[in-house]
Amino acid sequence: MPAMSDPRPLTGEPVSLDLLNTRWTRDGTRQDLLTGTDGLQIWLKANGLDTRFSADDATLERTLAARDALAALVASPGDKDALRRVDEVLDHGRIRATLDAGGPGEEAEFADPAWGPGWTAARGHLDLLRTAPDRIRVCAHEACVLHFFDTSRNGTRRWCSMALCGNRAKASRHYARSREG
Which residue in 33, 66, 60, 30 sits closest to 145, CA to CA? Predict the structure, then answer.
């Protein structure tokens, strides 16, 4: 069976935001990549996790729980319930220090490997929060639900993609101005 391609309009964001971006809107209809294990396999592959974790029902269930927890945290960063939910996801894994011929390292460990992808996304979100929490953004287009990490020099990126939402917003403003005139 040929591999399915990733249908999402925005990919390549940090793993926590990429997990949130498994939900998007197309032509006014909500889309969700994670409605089954085929979609999970696409997401795992897109994030280089497909060789470490299985795309099975248990992993899907736990990854969806992590996505919901991260979505609640991004929507309300200081909310105690959202913080607790992400912390519960993080409780399913740990980092073990390692040392081998290549030098010191770290390795993630899980009592239940099905929590691995969701834990990896939650752990990645901690890195974003440490780096620049003010650069975790939701697209400014009113019909878009995608998230991105603003890596622009001055930190003023507004759109998930200039080609997608930025152009739609410009076209809407142009249309509104032309109707006024």
Answer: 30
Answer yes or no: are the C-beta atoms of 148 and 10 closer than 8 Å.
yes
Cβ 8 vs Cβ 22: under 8 Å: yes
Residue 61: alpha-carbon gap to chain centroid: 16
Task: Note the helical H segments in the chain.
Answer: 15-20, 37-46, 57-75, 80-90, 116-131, 167-180
pLDDT in tens, the chain (181 residues): 556 899 999 999 999 999 999 999 998 899 999 999 999 999 999 999 999 999 999 999 999 999 999 999 999 999 999 999 999 999 999 999 999 999 999 999 999 999 999 999 999 999 999 999 999 999 999 889 999 999 999 999 999 988 878 766 555 554 566 666 5
Does residue 86 contact residue 73 with C-beta atoms inside 8 Å?
yes
